[in-house]
Amino acid sequence: MNSIEGIDLNLLRVFKAIVEERSLTRAGERLSLSQPAVSHCLGKLRTLFDDPLFVRTRTGMQPTTAALEIAAIVSKALDSVQFALRYAQRFEPLVSARTFRLSVSDAGELAYLPAIWSALQQAAPNVRLGVSPLPVDEIEEALRCSNIDFAVGNLPTLKPRTRNLPLFDETYVCITRKRKGLPVGRTISLPALQKARHVQVSSAEHSHHAIDAAFVQEGVKRHVVLEVPHFVALPDVLAATDWYATVPHHLAAVFAQDYPLRIYEFPVDLPRAAVTLHWHENFESDEANVWMRQLLTDVIQGFDKRWA
Q1: What keywords are assigned to this protein (predicted)?
Q2: For the chain, what is the mean pLDDT?
Q3: Domain of 142?
Q4: Smallest Cα–Cα separation from 132: which of 141, 121, 123?
């Protein structure tokens, strides 16, 4: 029987990397190890578990049935060790050099990041911030494994699987370049909306798909002439054309600081997007996590009040 006293825990890190990368080379690059070093570790792992663990195929190193069963246990064990090490470290904002990682949409980056960074510079000048936008189906695992610390956005399918805090409800508006001959009033008429040419932002976030579905349900047909993957190019596109775009209200307010834009409300009811802060229950009491989520809450809710 193997005893934990005689086991190098770094072997388990190598095992996890091979499972996830399906390649000795990529596992080595991830851990800053040479391929021979990874191969040597794999030999020790095979002896330790008395199983081949991985079979070389044309598509990579495929784990055996035993390896797949072990992988789930090893992953949780390493997460527990990592959590224990982080928990033991006192978090002092003024001196900490910790990196917090955040998953947020490009709209969120444009709207919230400047204010978040400004608040961090004042409260924790050595803390670093990394932004890693992830597909929603990858966020829960990334939070659990500490690949990210928080996710912010309209992510309703994530709520049952994370600890979360509602921040505010986002509405959507229609924007276009200021010029003569625009529709009058705060609300654009349905005929004017359907006559206009539109830029469509094909964001992956749930709320944008919900808005598109709502337009279809209300019988609104928009003439889309350009589709872009991100919001960042939108102001310059609108500045050079007479086109319109549908954007979150708070982002429209940010754009309007630097660009001459006319902002309209819609003539049909559109769903609100619940913007929520998410984290994993493993870090509910983690001192640094508690501090950072309070900062994020204060900044983003303050941002909402500023542009309400």
Answers
A1: DNA-binding, Transcription, Transcription regulation
A2: 89
A3: 93-169+274-306
A4: 141
Contact 93, 128 (CB under 8 A): no
- The verdict on 258 and 290 lying in the same domain is no
pLDDT digits (tens, 9 = 90+) for 177-235: 999 999 999 999 999 999 999 999 987 665 677 888 888 888 889 999 999 988 999 99
Contacts 24+ apart (CB under 8 A), 202-205: 202/227, 202/228, 202/229, 203/105, 203/106, 203/107, 203/229, 203/230, 203/231, 204/105, 204/135, 204/136, 205/105, 205/107, 205/153, 205/154, 205/155
pLDDT over 60 (residue 78): yes
Same domain, 75 and 195: no
The span from the first CA to the last CA of the chain, in angstroms, equals 64
Backbone angles phi, psi at 169, to 5 degrees: -100, 120
Same-domain status, 31 and 66: yes
Alpha carbons 116 and 299: distance in angstroms, whole number: 6
pLDDT value at 3 more than 60: no
Same domain (yes/no): 165, 283: yes
What is the bridge-based pairing of β-strands 60-63 and 54-57? antiparallel
Q: Are residues 219 and 206 in the same domain?
A: yes
How far, in Å, CA of 101 to CA of 129, rounded?
6
Which amino acid is located at 34 in the chain? S
Q: pLDDT tens across 146-155, in order?
A: 889 999 999 9
260 & 296 share domain:
no
Instruction: Give Cβ neighbours of residue 138 (< 8 Å, ≥ 6 apart).
Output: none
Residue 97's nearest CA partner among 130, 132, 128, 129 is 128
CATH code, 44: 1.10.10.10
- CATH number for position 180: 3.40.190.10
Could you tell me which residues are beta bridge partners of residue 177?
261
